[in-house]
Amino acid sequence: MKRSKLLNRICIFLLSMLAASFLTGCRRYEPVALEPGFDMEMIQESSISVSLEEETETEEETEPESESETEPPEEPDLRVPTKVKGIYLASKPLANKEFMSTFWDYMDSTELNAVVIDIKDDYGKVTYDMQNVPALVELKSIEVSIEDMPGLMQKFKEHGIYTIARIVSMRDPHLGYVKPEWCLQLPDGTVFRDNSNYAWLNPYKTEYWDYLLDIGRECAHIGFDEIQFDYIRFCTERGSSECVYDEEDVKGRDKISIITECVTYLSENLKKEGVFVSCDVFGTIIRSQIDSRAVGQSYSQMASVLDYICPMVYPSHYASGSFGLDAPDTNPYEAIRGALARSRSELSRAQAESAGRQAVVRPWLQSFTATWLGSGNYMTYDANAVRQEIQGVYDAGYDEWILWSASVKYFFDGFLTPSEAAKEEAYIAESRAALPPEEDPANEEETFPPELAEALDGDELRPEDEEILLQDGPIIVTE
User: Fold this and answer.
1) CB 315 within 8 A of CB 336
2) Relative to the CA of 375, which of 181, 356, 368, 388 has its CA 20 to 30 Å away?
3) Which of 181, 422, 425, 164 has the alpha carbon at shortest distance from 270?
4) Which letter does DSSP use for residue 58 in this model?
């Protein structure tokens, strides 16, 4: 009897060893999350390779492995891109039944196919219940304005709408009170606050990057197609130059280096979750080294690590003389085309210097009226003005766009029907071929609208204009 038991144990041991050796050569699949509405196609395949061969006693006896043996094969990119024609939606209108009832009709009957939704908003609050992120719970960063996010995401998918999660990054008034050690600080140790009394995060605090990454991951798990980082830059408002940085954090890196490093970190990690990654950038950093160094955004460097780069090229935010225009805001087509001509020029040069991949350019367009510019310097934006901007995008050689309105007011009668949009796409190739050669705007000086600087000082600015001005940047304030 004892002998039988011994034989049984030996058999079990041999079988377990055989099973273990078999499993070490298998691939395993680990789901990123099991959230409601989670898309199983987002699961990333991972593999473990274990060598069962015995190590040799000397290096001379070890045969060098080929490069193909040491480097794992590149995982296929299963993400499906969408040619975006979208609008921005703040979180609160999503809870307005009257607004949403007409919204679905507009999305179904027009060329619009994408939305950008506030997830981490301008006040530093996350707009739906992300209980899976401990840091958000600990810091009380959740303020629910979207009650049923899984249901909303399902509704978007039913209507074929591409969803983009907007995450406001380095400006965060909430963390200024609950996590001051992450924020920009003045020499006396107090938190720096801008003209709106908002705190800004210190980009050199790399632990904050994981805070953003965790929010992005949750957005991916619940079904967003893309994660978009806004305000991913240094603050440039008056007084920010007095902020101090600890060399232990800086480690010799300049502003452009640390912002590019942050964007790379977020992008590489979120792409593994099966989502696209984009960043909003100032339109003025294109061909303006002064603005680029001030905010820490390098157009070409960021484009080399992102899926989409979204320059904010609002005509109202360019000074008189830009693109040869006395009042850029009154010339929406010419302003947009001029700004994006710079984009093509800069990225073409970067591509020539380095043959790496580049992000798709998807500009933000203006759907608001900039009354603060004063009589003669602005025009009332309507469906026709927006259409001119869109045509400027196409004639500059780009295909995608998103409209910004802080008040979420859009001119839906100016959008094409899906069938009209399909015909327009066929026409675009012909119109581009007929365009004259573009001049290289490399040496054109970038100027800053003095009206904006004056408005920031509060010179007779209406509350509604101030709201738009604060949210519709880019705004770079010089000392």
Assistant:
1) yes
2) 388
3) 164
4) S
Cα–Cα distance between 133 and 142 in angstroms, integer?
A: 10
Cα Rg, the chain, nearest whole Å: 26
- 255 token code pair: 């502003």
Q: Is the dihedral of CA 391, 397, 402, 407 positive or negative?
A: negative
68-110 pLDDT per residue, tens: 456 667 678 888 999 999 999 999 899 888 999 999 999 999 9
Domain ranges of the chain: 86-471
Tell me which residue of 283, 257, 266, 200 sits closest to 234, measured CA to CA: 200
User: Residue 134: how many CA atoms within 13 Å on its side-chain side?
Assistant: 1
Of all residues in the chain, the percent with pLDDT exceeding 70 is 75
Sequence-distant (6+) residues with CB within 8 A of 362 are 84, 278, 308, 309, 310, 398, 400, 401, 402
Identify the burial level of 303 via C-beta atoms within 10 angstroms of its C-beta, where 0-12 means exposed, 13-18 middle and 19 or more buried.
buried
Categorize the per-residue pLDDT at 474 as very low, low, confident or very high, splitting at 50, 70 and 90: very low
Place of tokens 């099991």: 34
Tokens 């087509």 map to which residue?
333
In this structure, the strands spanning 45-47 and 27-29 are antiparallel
Q: Give the list of residues 6+ apart from residue 228 with CB closer than 8 angstroms, or none.
A: 116, 164, 165, 166, 167, 277, 278, 279, 280, 308, 310
Residue that has been written with the tokens 């406001």 in this structure: 168
Neighbours of 425 (CB within 10 A): 13
Reading the block at residue 466, the tokens are: 């101030």
The pair of three-digit structure tokens given for residue 292, joined into one six-digit string: 């680029």
Determine the Cα–Cα distance for residues 36 and 151; give it in Å rounded to an integer: 9
For residue 450, the one-letter residue type is P
pLDDT for 5 = 45
Q: What is the distance in angstroms between the CA of the first residue and the CA of the last residue of the chain? A: 92
Mean pLDDT of 299-328: 95
405 against 48, higher pLDDT: 405
CATH number of 86-471: 3.20.20.80
Torsion of CA 312, 325, 400, 127, to 10 degrees: 30
Taking the C-alpha atoms of residue 371 and residue 376, their distance in angstroms, rounded to an integer, is 10
Model pLDDT, residue 429: 78
45 Cβ neighbours under 8 A, 6+ residues apart: 27, 29, 75
